[in-house]
Specification:
Structural class of chain B: mainly alpha
Number of domains of chain B: 1
Low-confidence stretches of chain A: none
CATH class of the largest domain in chain A: Alpha Beta
Number of helices of chain A: 6
Distance between the termini of chain A: 86 Å
Largest interface: A-B, 17 and 13 residues
Number of domains of chain A: 2
Strand order of the largest sheet of chain A: 2-3-5
Number of strands of chain A: 5
CATH architecture of the largest domain in chain A: 2-Layer Sandwich
Helix content of chain A: 10-25%
Radius of gyration of chain B: 23 Å
Strand content of chain A: 5-15%
Largest sheet of chain A: 3 strands, antiparallel
Largest sheet of chain B: 3 strands, antiparallel
Mean pLDDT of chain A: 86
Distance between the termini of chain B: 34 Å
CATH topology of the largest domain in chain A: Alpha-Beta Plaits
Oligomer: heterodimer
Number of helices of chain B: 12
Chain lengths: 195, 398
């Protein structure tokens, strides 16, 4: 036994169809006249005419990556490979290197000799930003990858990534960064560890 | 009237009139493609096509999207003209023509303007008390006839026939063949189904369409479209729309079904039948089916204008110019004629606009609903309209 479905009751005017047609036509005609004869602001047209008009991206929009800079302009990145490990698309290529002898950072951290992101491979998931312990990689540039004809144009290298500013124009990060030997550094360092 | 023209003049006039009506159709049809896309966009809060541009004088002209129909037709011309294997090649090639030709043929009987008197384009004409056109002039301060009009005149109508509107029905009846043949010749089940649906639907609505127009025919007492328009000349309230409102609605519904457009587009039914009877057509052959559809839309509007909206009559405009009570603005015959042709074109455009509104407002009927609507509602109503009209006319005459 199937469950009896109660059919919706229709009034006489609904069954006569024409009044309902008139109602529908009134609605569509009102939209038509409003959108055709009123100014662009007053009409209800939802289309964004893309290249000329651009929708404002939300604040947390994940755009093209950038590498944040330290005060001296070097990358904050310490080449820990967390981002490239976390990356589900495997689009980040890092070749770590040691700082030279005598550099105060030597023995504390590494630096990326090569840092390349393949923006064609990237799925813009933001995992790299989540994974980064140093706030060195961010996706707050507010721009999407501009089109190009060569694939190589989508391979962004370290210099380019470092030069890209955030949407607010900054090339740094607002989070504090403690250099090795920094007295305000809360953790242990070579000078204070006693060995 | 054309009897007073020599054979050469008559041929020349016929060529001119044919050129005008064909030019009108070939101008409106691409415009319709544009109007349909832009109008639906406006209804649905979109922008619609507006990007096709042409570079002239150092800047790109978009012309609010009017170039898109040209881009479309260019695309269609260059597309591969595919004939499916197993298709009947001859019929497959002929079906679009059989669909398009009758649609254009039917337009021959449309009077798009009044009779034009070639020698009096600059004069003011009026009807003498005997109903004969004459040159108007002021005699003793009263407007009256001064001289008989030269008989060198022609109706602004390609074919002035006694059969008149019957030719339109005959041509419309042939349109079914094109759709059905297209479906049959394609060697495709979807096409065949679409063709059968088209045939069933069009034949059914043909009956209603014909019977619906019998009401106005009884009122006007003539089959000649030009006489019908003259009949509606005395005031706006003698227009068919006011005398036969039911017939107007029935005609509009039936004629929209004849054009096979939404909400009566089950012959195409792209959600079930891919593309219906023109599934297997590509390139300009498809374009001809497409074009035929728009020509039918124009023909529908033109017939509706002739029967129900006074044809080329412009309110308050008589042969001698605008007349409102005692106020009389005399105008030359040429400008009156131009105004009337313009009035007819505007009426056609408004009716087309209304058809597009309906097309973008209503969802598609199911096939059984279409048939029920035709045979159980429209047909009895059109018969009722005939009976009532007949009774009223008999009562008025007795």
């Amino acid at each position: 036994m199937g469950k009896p479905v109660k059919r919706p009751e229709q009034s006489l005017s609904e069954r006569a169809f024409l009044p309902e047609v008139a109602k529908g036509l009134t609605l569509t005609a009102s939209r038509f006249f409003k959108n055709t004869f009123s100014s662009a602001e007053k009409g209800d047209i939802a289309t964004v005419r893309y290249p000329e008009e651009q929708r404002e991206y939300p604040e947390r929009f994940r755009g093209v990556h950038r590498l944040t800079q330290r005060d001296d302009g070097s990358p904050r990145c310490v080449a820990c490979l967390c981002c490239s490990t976390a990356c589900p698309a495997q689009c980040i290529h890092i070749e770590p290197a040691e700082y030279g002898e005598g550099d105060p950072r030597q023995g504390y951290e590494k630096f990326p000799k090569v840092f390349v992101i393949d923006e064609l491979r990237c799925i813009f998931c933001g995992m790299c930003v989540e994974a980064c312990p140093c706030d060195a990689i961010r996706m707050d540039t507010g721009m999407h990858m501009p089109p190009a004809l060569e694939r190589d144009a989508f391979l962004l290298d370290k210099e380019l990534l470092l030069s890209l500013p955030a949407a607010d124009g900054s090339v740094k990060s607002a989070n504090p960064r403690h250099e090795p030997g920094d007295k305000t550094h809360p953790g242990i360092d070579r000078d204070r560890s006693g060995h | 009237m054309s009897a007073s023209l020599s054979v050469g003049q008559a041929l020349l006039a016929a060529a001119g009139k044919s050129t005008f009506i064909l030019g009108l159709v070939f101008a409106i049809a691409p415009l319709l493609v544009w109007a349909e896309r832009r109008q639906s966009a406006m209804i649905q809060d979109r922008v619609g096509p507006h990007r096709a541009s042409i570079r002239l004088f150092g800047r790109d002209w978009r012309l609010i999207g009017l170039l898109h129909p040209f881009a479309d037709s260019l695309k269609m011309v260059w597309k591969e003209d595919f004939i499916p294997p197993g298709a009947d090649k001859v019929l497959h090639a002929f079906a679009p023509w059989i669909s398009l030709a009758p649609a254009l043929f039917g337009l021959a009987i449309i009077p798009f303007g009044p009779a034009i008197y070639f020698e009096h384009l600059g004069d003011t004409l009026m009807l003498s008390p005997q109903g004969v056109p004459c040159v108007a002039g002021l005699a003793n301060g009263v407007l009256g006839c001064t001289a008989a009009a030269s008989p060198l005149a022609t109706e602004l109508q390609v074919a002035t026939l006694d059969a008149g509107i019957l030719l339109f029905f005959a041509a419309g009846g042939l349109g079914v063949v094109g759709a059905a043949l297209g479906g049959y010749a394609s060697n495709n089940k979807y096409s065949l189904l679409g063709g059968m649906r088209a045939a069933g639907q069009m034949v059914s609505y043909e009956v209603t369409l014909g019977l619906t127009l019998v009401g106005p025919l009884l009122v006007f007492g003539t089959l000649r479209p030009e006489e019908m328009v003259r009949w509606q000349s005395s005031s706006v309230f003698t227009w068919g729309f006011f005398l036969q409102p039911l017939a107007f609605i029935l005609y509009f519904v039936a004629a929209m079904a004849e054009t096979k457009r939404v909400p009566f587009d089950v012959p195409e039914g792209e959600s079930e039948l891919v593309g219906g009877y023109f599934t297997e057509y590509s390139g300009m052959k498809f374009g001809m089916f497409f074009f035929a559809e728009y020509v039918e839309v124009i023909a529908l509007a033109a017939i509706a204008a002739t029967f129900f909206c006074g044809g080329w009559q412009v309110p308050l405009l008589t042969d001698a110019g605008f007349v409102l009570g005692q106020l009389h603005v005399p105008m030359s015959h040429g400008s009156v004629t131009a105004l009337r042709v313009g009035g007819f074109v505007i009426k056609v455009l408004v009716l087309i606009w209304f058809q597009l509104m309906v097309r973008w407002s209503l969802p598609r009927f199911r096939y059984d609903q279409i048939m029920r609507l035709c045979w159980r509602y429209l047909l009895p109503l059109s018969l009722l309209n005939i009976v009532v009209t007949f009774a009223v006319i008999v009562w008025l005459r007795s």
